[in-house]
Amino acid sequence: MMVSSEKPAKKTVKPQRKTTENRPRTVAGVAHPDNNRPQNSNERFVANNEPRTAKRVKLIRQNQQEKITAQRIREERVDPKEGHSERISKALAMSGVGSRRECDNLISQGKVLVNGRLAELGQQLVEHDRVEVLGRPVRIKWQDRLARIIIYHKPEGELVSRSDPQGRATVYDKIPLLVNKRFTAIGRLDYNTCGLLIFTTSGELANHFTHPRYEVEREYAVRIYGDPLTVEQVREIKTGITLDDGVAKFKDIYKLELQDSDSKNHWYKVLLMEGRNREVRRMFEHFEITVSRLMRTRFGPIDLPPRLKRGNYYELDEIEVARVMQSFGLTVAGTER
After folding, report:
1. 117-118 and 112-114 strand pairing
2. Among candidates 204, 193, 170, which has minimal Cα distance to 324?
3. Does the model's pTM come out above 0.70?
């Protein structure tokens, strides 16, 4: 038997390619059995006790002239009227001490001093007053510059509250900017209501939006299930019906043609001039009709932008803020002229 004198060729060992065959494979919304991660993003945030933040969006791109105008508005300073005074709880809230209710509590507990004396509820502050809270001096920030306005497309399942004993999600958890306690919500939407929610740093603007004497319109889209409203029910709901807390009525109501003729869901657009607790729902419950969905689409001069998706928020630019203030006869700082 002859043996070849040639050395056998060495086998080249190719580096093994990394594959994902042995890795746990995951599908969006479904966890691998060997994975301890929660199944979806909502569960992940609950498990980590970490709220999912809302997305900030930009809806308008300014041209060069608008940028110049915006800068001029931003740099404008509003001098307070001579002898101007501010209610103490409002002044403390504007200075970042807390909400007006929290400031009232501090005053009631004797933890606020004005010029070395215990403050009183409803007391008026003037420019040169010296204020102390919990033994520390507080510099009162008078509203002299452009106010800020944020609009949020609130989804169902969020509270309009800074905290909740039951640990439910709040709108303040979702929008990081609202950590600044100078922001206050203009009106409220209940837990199961979605749509337009407005925040501002101007207490006077919030008051103009919400006080009944200003009669600011609120517009809602309402979905009911079952039979549509009758002509008599529409007439009664526009004339006025009696609820537990008084008479309520819609300024206007009309049916939206958004559904098929044989659909059991019926959409209405309603307009009212006040914002009592669950008022729209209670007005339909008067006729034993359940509202299956409720969305605020407009509040005064501010509409819910079609491009603002649920869970997103937008801060109005300088020109938009100035227009809102002008509609109420206020300065750009949100103070009386």
Report:
1. antiparallel
2. 204
3. yes
CB-CB contact of 218 with 299 (8 Å):
yes
Q: Can you point out the beta strands (E) in 169-303?
A: 184-186, 194-200, 218-225, 241-243, 246-248, 252-256, 265-272, 291-299, 302-303
CA 199 – CA 183 distance, rounded (Å): 6
Q: Which residue has the higher pLDDT, 295 or 29?
A: 295
Q: Which two tokens stand for residue 144?
A: 């002299």
Tokens of 264: 């059991």
DSSP, res 11: P
Residue type, 60: I
The amino acid present at 165, given as its one-letter code, is P
- Cα dihedral 112, 116, 122, 125 in deg (nearest 10): -110
Within 10 Å of residue 25's Cβ, how many Cβ atoms?
Answer: 10
**Nearest CA to 51 among 189, 159, 153, 187?**
159
Sequence length of the chain is 337
Task: Indicate the SS3 state at residue 181.
Answer: coil
pLDDT 10s digits, 141-190: 887 889 999 999 999 999 998 888 898 999 999 998 888 777 889 989 99
DSSP of 88-135: HHHHHHHTTS--HHHHHHHHHTT-EEETTEE--TTPEE-TT--EEETT
Sign of CA dihedral 300, 302, 308, 313: negative
Q: Which of 79, 144, 190, 227 is catalytic?
A: 190
pLDDT at 15 over 90: no
With bands split at pLDDT 50, 70 and 90, how would you rate the model's confidence at 327? very high
DSSP 159: B
Contacts of 49 (CB under 8 A, 6+ apart): none
245 in catalytic set: no
What the block records as the tokens of 67 is 């940028």
What are the start-end ranges of the E strands in 124-211?
A: 124-125, 131-133, 136-138, 149-154, 184-186, 194-200
Please, are residues 302 and 324 in contact by the beta-carbon 8 Å criterion? yes
